[in-house]
Specification:
Helices cover 70% and strands 0% of the residues. It is built from 4 helices and no strands. The longest helix has 17 residues. The termini are far apart. 27% of the residues are buried.
């Protein structure tokens, strides 16, 4: 996942594959691994999307990118049963 322009569906697949490799980690730790594997352009994209969603102008890039991954996963996963 080194390119800019990752769709939400591609991101969800990346999270699912990472979770298969690390079943003992919680969702936030999985999101952190996904962000660490992403290239700098993708991390910046994720952070930008998250800050735009929150209507904020500034934030820590890594933390904002992780929050974006979590937001996408939880949104696409739907309501809890």
């Amino acid at each position: 996942m080194r390119r800019v322009g990752v769709t939400d569906e591609e991101l969800l697949v990346e999270v699912a594959l990472t979770r298969l490799d690390h079943p003992d980690l919680d969702l936030e730790e999985i999101a952190e691994l996904v962000v660490r594997k992403a290239g700098p352009g993708t991390v910046l994209e994720f952070a930008s999307r998250n800050l735009a969603e929150r209507r904020e102008l500034r934030g820590t890039m890594f933390a904002a990118a992780v929050e974006h991954v979590l937001r996408v996963v939880l949104t696409l996963r739907g309501p809890a049963d």
